[in-house]
Amino acid sequence: MSFVIFNPIVGEIECVGSTRSRYVRISVRSDGSLLLTYPRFSSVDDAIAFAEKRAEWIRTARRKMAERVANYPTISLKEREALRRDAHSVIPTLVATLAQRHGLSYTSLRISSAHTRWGSCSTKNGISISLFVMLLPEHLREFIILHELCHTRHHNHSAAFHALLDTLTNGKEKALNRELKAHRIPRIKS
Ligand SMILES: [Zn+2]
After folding, report:
1. How much distance in Å is there from the Cα of 150 to the middle of ligand 1?
2. CA 157 to centroid of ligand 1, rounded, Å
3. What is the distance in A from the centroid of ligand 1 to the CA of 25?
4. Cα 39 from Cα 23, distance rounded (Å)
5. What is the pLDDT of residues 97-115, one digit of tens each?
6. How much distance in Å is there from the Cα of 146 to the middle of ligand 1?
7. Are 116 and 86 in contact (CB under 8 A)?
8. Whole-number pLDDT of residue 176
């Protein structure tokens, strides 16, 4: 369940009631928008009141995010289309190979031009991979695909999920995550 409200103090908020949330959480996305997740069966008004109380923190987080985004690498549309072609020739085989090697299965594969995430996995085990993984070194590209493939078995970031991913990466999940953090998805040159 998700909806967007316009709050007079903190602006637009996307509210997501989640059965997996244990407490209220606020995050600022790279475009400055706010995401508010809260336990599915608790009051959304309480969650919004919590966001209002953190208005100062939100202002600071937005400013920091804007600074970070200003430092993002950029890419032209033409370069992106070249990446898309590369992605279509490389990713389907790579995903199929990794899935087979580790005995994991997915129902569909989509190559997206997402700027906000490297990949995702739906509840129906449809995998989506951002074409921007083509900018990453090969081992990190594989790491992202493995991450999404592990979600076909665990649709969350539980301990069981991390244990599986860590096994498939020979105990390097944490190190690979750290390495990945140094990479940014580029913005399109305007
Ligand atoms: Zn994940």
Report:
1. 8
2. 6
3. 17
4. 6
5. 999 999 999 999 999 998 8
6. 10
7. no
8. 97
Q: What is the pLDDT of residues 112-146, one digit of tens each?
A: 998 889 999 999 999 999 999 999 999 999 999 99
CATH superfamily for domain 74-188 = Metalloproteases ("zincins"), catalytic domain (3.30.2010.10)
Ligand 1 centre to CA of 148 (Å) is: 6
Cα of 190 from ligand 1 centre, angstroms: 30
Domain range annotation of the chain: 2-70, 74-188
- Tokens 């209220």 label which residue? 24
The rounded Å distance from CA 153 to ligand 1 centre is: 11
Can you tell me the mean pLDDT for 137-159? 96
CA of 144 to the centre of ligand 1 (A): 9
Indicate the angle between helix axes 173-181 and 138-151, nearest 10 degrees. Answer: 120
**Contact present, 47 and 24 (Cβ < 8 Å):** yes
